[in-house]
């Protein structure tokens, strides 16, 4: 074997000293959950600074040729007796006053808990070099290797840097606009709930402009989720800089964004600015000096979240479980929402087969930096949960001689890399604030969709088609639309409680000051929730193309397909009249089995007439020049591109108003045309009812012509541009649509395609669905979202529960049925459930019953 000094000299050029900005992964393996505390320790590549456990370091060496690795092993120090009062979830001696880590007023970063042993390992012979060995080596070797070792030791690990950044992400500066913010005296008062974007009707990610009270949706995020940018467009049009996110307002503050400063900011006059629009909760005093603020409550939860008393099955001795599929997940600070969702998802066979069954191939195909690869990190998480390798009892952090009953904690896995990757670029999931589990589920499904445009897509297990049938009550003609969805949202009809008398009596006693009044939970039948979903909705301001005026209509929602796995959300979270976010305290008798067959959509009925899509011809004027509808695409020799009709005169002011709302120009033109120039209200209603149409943004095509004005014929599209967009994972049809909508300009087409993902997906479904295939005699459907279908009978296999007053605080746990036994997953604790609280869940997961 060659002398170790000579070997080090031969690899010296591959050994780097970490520089500022280098990502040093010294706490976690890039391909597994091995750490310096694991058996075998952690090997940090001294060139790329990626960390690898003993199982994967040889693989990295063989793939890259890298030979020098910094080896770190840690062993836990025995706790001093005086430190025991800070174990077992008890608060530390120094009370934190700020939701931050490692800074003044925040949580202390635990130091000196481990004894570390470090050395350099040279592969493949695993020759060892310690600091003492370096002293006898040539200066050039000693200096370079010593500097690299010291740099790795002193560098902040990626996980620590992210942890501090995420926790202290709430330090915001006062906006320069806050002190003298202009507010319009328009008499506008904002209700405490039921907000919708005034432009697109979106109900999530809603912001109120603090100058004029406009309620609009927020930015579209990098992954296609979020809003439709209408709040941003409003700022660009008006210059009104500050907006507050509705749903984040508490007595302690709110999320305020400055579009001018392009950052989250503080508004010291926020109570005054909110009260201008009728929101007076910011001026409320706390009920008593002992009542804790939301921040104090969150800190308390984070300090004691590991204790069994905070979950619903408190007071019961639960039996810890270990083994494959029974692995706990560490809470990284309000990450219980992520833990619960991922535990359930990896119970679904589609996710297991996609990411775990072929993990070896995924790892073999991983890029040079697997920490930034979505498929690799999801597979790593899935394998960590299902393999059982990390499902082992955790060492007791307290007195090792304590013979008390075991706490049930596991070593478990800490999903740091996964959380950082899926949260990157997202204003909520990139922080350590508590989040809504339902929003995270949709966000993750969205990411799976983006990363599975070819090959097996596990989110198909949840995807289904919804059919909406609108019937004009005056003409009795109907309109059918379909959309893709992943979650069934059930309203909670509080007026249907079966214990109304008990609730009223308890409320009466509380109002009289009776401190012994019992807490009574409203009992809501599950059938009442389903009825609220399935019963027809009355539309009082519907513009009917049949009668060419506003009238009343009914809208009925049904399942056009039934997914393999059905997710039901109980809409518990709301806002009180005082604008305080709250959760409805209800008990719902959610069934173990569910038969939705009666809610199957039937489509157009025999003899039923459909609402006409084309309105009577719009107004014409005699002085309009007769010319080809296609304008510049026509010529004197080709009359086929001309029309005997006069060009329509569209109401430019209505078109402009719709465009200012953020709708595509061609959609606005069609809205005005098809409503016969009857005004902004009719055109807006047309847009709202046609937003899911596949050709919503396509150019206006008039009767008697083959394409619309301004359309770029397919044959003139750049093949290079088409190939570029197709290489991004989109179909050729989608690329063609984007280029045609943007006059064959590649940059604009890419922007267009990412801002119309929902339109494109609905286009794929409608073109590739059953009706298209039947109507075109078996034409092969274009690639796009596939929808599975089958019987509508289901059985409950999991549910996620939330404890706390709102989604912005509290704690999530999940219960999963495994081998006919309910198991509770409470972060690192995994136990057999004795009394699963199925009536108190928030998200319910059903799987199809095989017939």
TrEMBL record:
CDD domains xref list: Peptidase_C19B, UBA1_UBP5_like, UBA2_UBP5
Species assigned in the record: Xyrichtys novacula
Keywords for the protein's UniProt record, in alphabetical order: Hydrolase, Metal-binding, Protease, Repeat, Thiol protease, Ubl conjugation pathway, Zinc, Zinc-finger
Keyword Zinc set for record: yes
Domain of life: Eukaryota
SMART domains: UBA (SM00165), ZnF_UBP (SM00290)
Protein name: Ubiquitin carboxyl-terminal hydrolase
Family, per entry: Belongs to the peptidase C19 family.
